[in-house]
UniProtKB/TrEMBL annotation:
InterPro entries: AAA+_ATPase, DNA_recomb/repair_RecA-like, HHH_XRCC3_RAD51B, P-loop_NTPase, Rad51_C, RAD51B, RecA_ATP-bd. Belongs to the RecA family. RAD51 subfamily. It comes from the Eukaryota. Keywords: ATP-binding, DNA damage, DNA recombination, DNA repair, DNA-binding, Nucleotide-binding, Nucleus. PROSITE patterns: RECA_2. Part of the BCDX2 complex consisting of RAD51B, RAD51C, RAD51D and XRCC2; the complex has a ring-like structure arranged into a flat disc around a central channel. The BCDX2 subcomplex RAD51B:RAD51C interacts with RAD51. Interacts with SWSAP1; involved in homologous recombination repair. Interacts with HELQ. Residues 79-259 form the RecA family profile domain. GO terms for cellular component: Rad51B-Rad51C-Rad51D-XRCC2 complex; replication fork. It comes from Alligator sinensis (Chinese alligator). Its main location: nucleus. This is DNA repair protein RAD51 homolog 2. It is found in: Nucleus. The keyword ATP-binding applies. The keyword Endoplasmic reticulum does not apply.
């Protein structure tokens, strides 16, 4: 909440502009400045600065809600709590789809459909609420130059042929998706810091970053002394801002992540690097014809355990065999561990069936899971 812009804290426009000239733009910036410095910058008296501090503090303080309030809010407008993926079994497992007000991470190896999923969700977010959408705009931050406008239109035309029947509707949908290509950690963070006013002015209902890991892994070599701490601080700041935006505006935030190799030679593994929800080998199906074999426990989601705790929901996309792939619900506050087979078609991701996960063993680094045919 401290990331809230001062303009939204009820301060006068002239005062906000004066503070901005001193790089004081958010409630956090304001509250971190000394009392004497605030008097000098604002030109206000001791008593007036006290009033300003109280006003800003109240504006950024989290509002208390009871469980009953939350329940009734969702009961009045249940469609505002989730963005449907239109993948029926996955939506059912997630109690409605991608949750609003939280961070959903999609991770997996290259070519499994992470970007396809993001593009598909971009289309769905622009739909009217009567069709399961959020009737709003989308901010799409592309750090890998993987976004395709042609693919966006193709998914829209084939997934919802009865809705996108005219050129006008397709044009309206494409104009609602605002694409930013940010190729450095600094530019990504600056873009996120500027999103608050953009979300309001453009009526944004979905934020996507594809991918978080791309720029971070290029700029931070964790083998160098101090880089792991700097990377963790950067990711913590990024996650904090995104959580604020998701909660403040009750919108879903979808992030994609990459995979990395976990040590499997018996050496000690840093606690920050492994989490039970990270282990991608959990989804390997023993003996499946044509499956891509991986050494047990060697592939994990990138960015470490600290980042893993920052996301509310983690979906893992991976190969099942030569034709099909799997979506795994690896972490969720509402859904059990579950897996769904899918293929990538002209209409985006299409479910083919689904399986349940069963616990089979425990290790000190991660929980090993094995899929049983459902």
């Amino acid at each position: 909440m401290a990331s809230k812009k001062l303009r939204r804290a009820g301060l006068a426009q002239e005062l906000c502009e004066r503070l901005s000239r001193h790089q004081i733009n958010t409630c956090h910036d304001f509250l971190c400045v000394s009392f004497l410095e605030l008097m000098n910058v604002t030109g206000q008296s001791y008593q007036n600065v006290q009033k300003l501090l109280c006003k800003v503090s109240r504006a950024c303080a989290p509002k208390m809600q009871t469980a009953y309030d939350l329940k009734m809010k969702r009961a009045v407008n249940p469609f505002s709590a989730f963005l449907s993926t239109t993948l029926d079994s996955l939506d059912k497992a997630l109690h409605g789809g991608v949750a609003c007000g939280s961070l959903t991470e999609v991770t997996g190896p290259p070519g499994c459909g992470k970007t396809q999923f993001c593009i598909m969700m971009s289309v769905l977010a622009t739909l009217p609420t009567s069709l399961g959408g959020l009737d709003g705009a989308v901010i799409y931050i592309d750090t890998e130059s993987a976004f395709s406008a042609e693919r966006l239109v193709q998914i829209a035309e084939h997934r919802l042929p009865n809705y996108f029947v005219t050129e006008e509707k397709l044009v309206s949908m494409t104009r609602s998706i605002h694409l930013y290509r940010e190729l450095t950690c600094e530019s990504v963070l600056k873009r996120i810091e500027s999103l608050e006013e953009e979300i309001i002015s453009k009526k944004v209902k979905l934020v996507i970053i594809d991918s978080v890991a791309s720029v971070v892994r290029k700029e931070f070599d964790t083998k160098l002394q101090g880089n792991l701490t700097e990377r963790s601080n950067f990711l913590a700041r990024e996650a904090s801002l995104l959580k604020y935006l998701a909660e403040e505006f009750s919108i879903p935030v979808i992030l994609t992540n990459q995979i990395t190799t976990r040590l499997s030679n018996g050496l000690a593994i840093q606690a920050d690097l492994v989490s039970p929800a990270d282990d991608l080998s959990l989804s390997e199906v023993s003996g499946a014809p044509g499956s891509r074999k991986m050494e047990s426990g060697c592939m994990i989601a990138a960015l470490g355990n600290t980042w893993s705790h920052s996301v509310n929901t983690r979906l893992i996309l991976q190969y099942h065999d030569l034709q099909t792939r799997q979506i795994l619900v690896a972490k969720s506050p509402v859904a059990p561990f579950s897996a769904f087979l899918y293929t990538i078609e002209k209409s985006g991701l299409v479910l083919q069936g689904w399986k349940w996960l069963k616990w089979v063993s425990r290790s000190s680094a991660a929980e090993a899971l094995n899929l049983q045919q459902g």
